[in-house]
Amino acid sequence: MPLALVVKFDQLVEVLITTIIFVVIGLVVFAIAFFALDKLTPFSIRKEIEEDHNTALAIVIGSLILGIALIVSAAISG
Question: Count of domains in the chain?
């Protein structure tokens, strides 16, 4: 068996725990950023997108979500 495929159980558990911790931290930071974005806008983002079918706003919010996700992932990965 190649050496790269040999993984000790301790290492696997350590990596899984670290991954779970970083996922939780990333989701919390992302949720805080999105909540702040929602509160800083003078209108309801949900109403504009769902009821008024504002496609331009949906594209802008989608871009902001991707940007926030990239920033959070870069901050976590170092």
Answer: 1
